[in-house]
């Protein structure tokens, strides 16, 4: 049963990625549809940059900041669940929460004077914004392991490093992956505001549409952002089921 269910997810993943690529490549030819949506405008297809170029830039920003947030968040989560960092658990949890509750636009405004315009402040903002789900799930995954399992590992003579790599991380992997998934999906949408400070993202047509009162531009950007989020979500669904299946295997 488990094998059959995991086989279905690559199909969903392939369909969502195929749809994303198909829409990205064919969107410039949807003039008839967008003329119906925006009949008063001569230009209804966003053409300052290619949609494929914007998709690549957007994906690079999301994945690079997501990788940095994941490495930082998992590292912090593991540290505060060790004896050496346990006293800092409340402080790290609070700082991670503050990082996400702080409005991304405000983070951008504070980062621009120090980092300039473009990719860097957008990367910094997404890094802070994506930390909380990863830190929280790493702590929850490690703390969710039954004490009897850890005691058994100690009784077998495992070193703390062996317990971490061979027992704790494999058992907490699915929970940690869920945190990484949440972080990335949130940042797919949040990355669009990077266009306000010169970062090239799928927010470019959305911002241009809002400035020029062109609803067609807004729909084009939002459509691609939504399809990208669905594709990444399908990917992590598949990876999560593979992890669950591997963990359940005797």
Which features does this protein show?
single chain; 250 residues; mainly alpha; 11 helices; elongated
Task: Describe the secondary-structure layout.
Blueprint: H1 2-26, H2 31-37, H3 51-79, H4 89-101, H5 104-115, H6 119-129, H7 131-143, H8 147-155, H9 160-190, H10 203-212, H11 215-248
Helix pairs in contact: 1-11, 3-6, 3-7, 3-9, 4-7, 5-6, 7-9, 8-9, 9-11, 10-11
Count every beta strand, where a strand is a DSSP E run of 2 or more residues: 0
Helix content: over 70%
Order of helices and strands: HHHHHHHHHHH
> What ranges have pLDDT less than 50 throughout 5 or more consecutive residues?
none
C-alpha-based Rg, rounded: 21 Å
Task: Using the alpha-carbon principal axes, give the shape.
Answer: elongated
Please identify the structural class as seen in this structure.
mainly alpha
Strand content: under 5%
Average pLDDT confidence is: 88
- Could you give a short account of the major beta sheet? none
Question: Number of helical runs?
Answer: 11
Give the distance, in angstroms, between the N- and C-terminal Cα atoms: 15 Å
């Amino acid at each position: 049963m488990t094998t059959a269910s995991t086989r279905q997810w690559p199909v969903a993943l392939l369909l969502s990625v195929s749809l994303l690529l198909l829409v990205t490549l064919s969107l410039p030819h949807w003039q008839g549809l967008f003329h119906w949506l925006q009949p008063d405008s001569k230009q209804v297809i966003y053409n300052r940059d290619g949609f494929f170029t914007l998709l690549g830039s957007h994906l690079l920003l999301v994945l690079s900041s997501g990788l940095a947030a994941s490495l930082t968040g998992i590292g912090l989560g593991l540290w505060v669940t060790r004896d050496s960092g346990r006293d800092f658990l409340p402080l790290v949890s609070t700082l991670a929460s503050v990082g996400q509750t702080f409005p991304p636009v405000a983070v951008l405004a504070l980062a621009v004077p120090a980092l300039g315009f473009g990719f860097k402040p957008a990367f910094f903002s997404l890094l802070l914004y994506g930390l909380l789900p990863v830190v929280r799930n790493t702590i929850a995954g490690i703390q969710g392991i039954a004490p009897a399992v850890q005691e058994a590992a100690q009784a077998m003579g495992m070193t703390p490093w062996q317990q971490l790599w061979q027992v704790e991380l494999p058992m907490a992997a699915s929970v940690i992956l869920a945190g990484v998934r949440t972080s990335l999906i949130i940042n797919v949408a949040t990355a669009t505001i990077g266009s306000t400070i010169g970062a090239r993202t799928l927010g470019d047509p959305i911002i241009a549409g809002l400035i020029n009162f062109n609803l067609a531009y807004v729909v084009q950007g939002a459509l691609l952002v939504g399809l990208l989020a669905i594709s990444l979500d399908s990917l992590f669904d598949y990876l999560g089921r593979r992890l669950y299946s591997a963990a359940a295997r005797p």
